[in-house]
Description:
By secondary structure, the chain is α+β, with helices and mostly antiparallel strands. It has 3 domains: 1-90 and 214-281 and 524-558, D-Maltodextrin-Binding Protein, domain 2 (3-Layer(aba) Sandwich); 96-203, Dipeptide-binding Protein, Domain 1 (Dipeptide-binding Protein, domain 1, Alpha-Beta Complex), CATH 3.90.76.10; 292-516, Roll (Dipeptide-binding Protein, domain 3), CATH 3.10.105. Helices cover 25% and strands 21% of the residues. The chain has a 6-stranded mixed sheet. A 4-stranded antiparallel sheet has the order 5-6-8-7, covered by helices on one side. A hairpin with a 5-residue loop joins strand 18 and strand 19 (386-388). Helix 6 runs antiparallel to helix 8 and helix 7 crosses helix 9. It starts with a helix and ends in a 27-residue tail after the last helix. 54% of the residues are buried.
Amino acid sequence: MKKRGWxxxxxxxxxxxxxxxxxxxxxxxxxxxxxxxxxxxxxxxPAGNTESAAxxxxxxxxxxxxxxxxxxxxxxxxxxxxxxxxxxxVHEPLIQSTLTVTTADLKIDYDLATEMNxxxxxxxxxVKIRDGVSFTDGEKLTAKDVAxxxxxxxxxxxxxxxxxxxxxxxxxxxxxxxxxKRAYSIWPYTMAIVGIIPEHAYxxxxxxxxxxxxxxxxKQWDRGQQVIFEANPDxxxxxxxxxxxxxxxxxxxxxxxxxxxxxxxxxxxxxxxxGQKIPRSPLLSFETVDNRGFNLPxxxxxxxxxxxxxxxxxxxxxxxxxxxxxxxxxxxEMIENVLSGYGSPAYSVCDKMPWYxxxxxxxxxxxxxxxxLEEAGWKEGKDxxxxxxxxxxxxxxxxxxxxxxxxxxxxxxANQLKAVGIDVKTxxxxxxxxxxxxxxxxxxxxxxxxxPMELYNIYHTxxxxxxxxxxxxGNETVDRYMDEALASSxxxxxxxxxxxxxxxLGIPSRLINVGCMMAYMNYxxxxxxxxxxxxxxxxxxxxxxxxxxxxxxxxGEL
Length: 558
């Protein structure tokens, strides 16, 4: 999860600048705010760029400067197998094209593909592609490149799961056939996240010098500082409104300082900056599926995983305890306290999706949580913390060090659970430590993706351990529903099975999802109104828990 999370956020922000927002974001991230674009810009480049911010603005209406956190920079470059444009969290790669795309309502539409058919047994997908598409080096894109891409990612990808793919075959220049090892009804969603790479130009250094057929060309990458994209003049689709996009990589404080000084147009920073006003920069917010929650190990302590790390937690292993924690969290209050009201309660890893089952939702009930803890044998002690068999009720809740939002969510969780007699200590840790300990201790994760595979990857048990990957848990009924969903004859049919899987998961709560967050950002009316042809994206309405409006314009419901 942590290595995939930044990818989608990049796509979303750049799409927002071009008014192509799908309203989805995910994973490990800082929150979006910022954008000041003043009349004058400093001559000094905030990230040591080879060209100044002032020079970058010379392009007028068709350029934008974006700031993202250092963790957003791809370690492996811009390769669909490893870096930016890779993984299930990506909506659209910028440099490469995809066979399909997901629409604003998360349905499937075509990009490179023009026609798609699947056999009755679900084992053969035949896709016709556009004729006349070229890579940016002038070479024609054919079905052979598509087959090469998928076979390469099947064998090498560190992000995507291609275990269901046997092989991809180019029948002719415009026809590719996917031979599957097993039926996989959501294959169109996979096709929406796989950027097509050129067979003739792919090698070990492709990530540093990517060639694609997408909307943008990577013109410059200064590691640790910036990456510059320019619009592809030969792009076959609608030309992007942003002809030049410069992405700077900065820590939260530096990003906000750049916003205040007017050096950048958009910046991801922490939610803690939301209350700070920037002249001529009202806040914009966009509906998202990006949510936060923490895992609860569902087996008793004493075991270890394949790497020798501890596995299980005696306190959270009790289903009554997990249920109590689930209803002891006041999600509305947390969203108000931590996110200044920008968000909505989350109950699963697929809220707002076509395959979301709202029957899994719970109601905040402090007294009900206390009753469940009493039933589990945890009695209130003199200090208010519950005890059982000489042990205190509680656990350590980890969060990624440096992520101020998850830190604040963890702290709020601790405060709320103390009210029902559970002592929660919070700890900021590095991701390596987090992964080693997350099988035994709760961790504040980030979730959300455009495909049901997010649910599968988190909850489906692994053959070698009989437990799920991100926390010790196993449920044969859940596994069966998800397996049947993948084997369905259609996407629509699979949705109902994904919903059934969620219902089963809602009973033995293993993940407590606390909120679906908003991707919010500031904008400078003068600059971005012009850039976007005087048509900025309206804000999502903030609705406080008392029903009153706390926002500006509305383009949808939270």
